[in-house]
């Protein structure tokens, strides 16, 4: 009826088909992909008045991608370094499947299935290996990388660009290659106009991470890889478009973070700062946060970006790998990873740790004695409350990343206010572990992890707690994008487009009981290399005979394990005193590697 009120959301839905059709055609994407992206935004933003006429018009006005402009000014040095490594990895994958394709790799237990697959080596990983002692990037610990990787001029911290190069190529970049990559990333930092309009239009009561999730979703239609797939680009060339997207995303994460910060905490001031080609990622991000001259803060950003790039197949990384295996574009992939990352049991623990430290300070003040802190913690433990920032799902020892932050504190001339909060956190980190051992005897690792200090130190530089996770978002996005590129192109599984679709088999408790009574079956190595299709479990221990040699006879096998804390241990037959993975040979003639991801 004329004059009848109509919910504006209903009106928007009525216009949706036209908008989606225009979007899908303009971006060179399929209708299904376009609708998925659009629906993602609607679900997250409904009721926030974001989808007005001007926004719909900006979508309709988007020009079609010209295939000749799909490639940017890609760093030839980086692309050539990756291309040189591809043949050896393809050869290794071919040999692994050909020689050991029928060998069982792990005995699955009911406990493994029912406890979140924790510790199961079910995700093939190229860039890192993780175990109870920490992470290694291509066989190198963070301490070793700190020694061998080049630093940015006048910096004493690990260079994020150097780590990115190393993850991509497993080689140490020269100073020239380091600056070349930094300049290339700088050139990619500009956000499209409609993305800027969308970001600036977001309500500032939306948390920073949620804003990032939304902006990444809007950016998805700019994926060069998706456009290349739609244009039937030869499979052998697709990794180059994946690299294009990866570098674009890395650079744009910095711009998105800076823009969200200025919109939310500085009322939009200086949102359009032009990044400098002579600066690195940390310097440009600091400038976008209004801290151009704060050398100490820039050093802290460098450290944080370098420390958090990869930690194996944790919740955020595995989420991104799962999306990537379905050929989801990298922007939506990163968005999904961030959704997993903000969970309280993952990176969200940083926010919980910040609140815990703030509660101690507000309750006891910075001058609190050790006995007062101990009494406060005991009171929480007696109420069965969690003490965030301690222990780890994988690590059985002190988090090595924490040592880097502690070293930064010692080397830096912190301001008085900063010193007080940091000193309080350091006190807590000494007092809490013995209490956890007494009150939570089932906790195998009571040492502080990187979350216990990282958030507090950043906040001490007047960074709002709501923004702290953005540094983690950028860093983990950088790291996974290196894996994303290696997942594309015929790398792990020759004759296929990278790593195949993940499709583990779901299983009920009733089916588990049937398997138990029939003694079940064992996952084979091909299942691990082929995306777990039809497989209820994946793991990582090669069976060897009693003499330590490889055997394909599943009836005569010995499974080695290191300790009762490991569900299983990867054993790789060695032919030399030391293996390329950095492990030490045991007396049984096998190498013990990490209990999580495998490559």
From TrEMBL:
<keyword id="KW-0496">Mitochondrion</keyword>
<comment type="similarity">
    <text>Belongs to the citrate synthase family.</text>
</comment>
<dbReference type="GO" id="GO:0050440">
    <property type="term" value="F:2-methylcitrate synthase activity"/>
</dbReference>
<keyword id="KW-0809">Transit peptide</keyword>
<dbReference type="InterPro" id="IPR036969">
    <property type="entry name" value="Citrate_synthase_sf"/>
</dbReference>
<dbReference type="InterPro" id="IPR002020">
    <property type="entry name" value="Citrate_synthase"/>
</dbReference>
<dbReference type="Pfam" id="PF00285">
    <property type="entry name" value="Citrate_synt"/>
</dbReference>
<keyword id="KW-0808">Transferase</keyword>
<dbReference type="GO" id="GO:0005759">
    <property type="term" value="C:mitochondrial matrix"/>
</dbReference>
<dbReference type="GO" id="GO:0005975">
    <property type="term" value="P:carbohydrate metabolic process"/>
</dbReference>
<protein>
    <recommendedName>
        <fullName>Citrate synthase</fullName>
    </recommendedName>
</protein>
<dbReference type="GO" id="GO:0006099">
    <property type="term" value="P:tricarboxylic acid cycle"/>
</dbReference>
<dbReference type="InterPro" id="IPR016143">
    <property type="entry name" value="Citrate_synth-like_sm_a-sub"/>
</dbReference>
<dbReference type="InterPro" id="IPR016142">
    <property type="entry name" value="Citrate_synth-like_lrg_a-sub"/>
</dbReference>
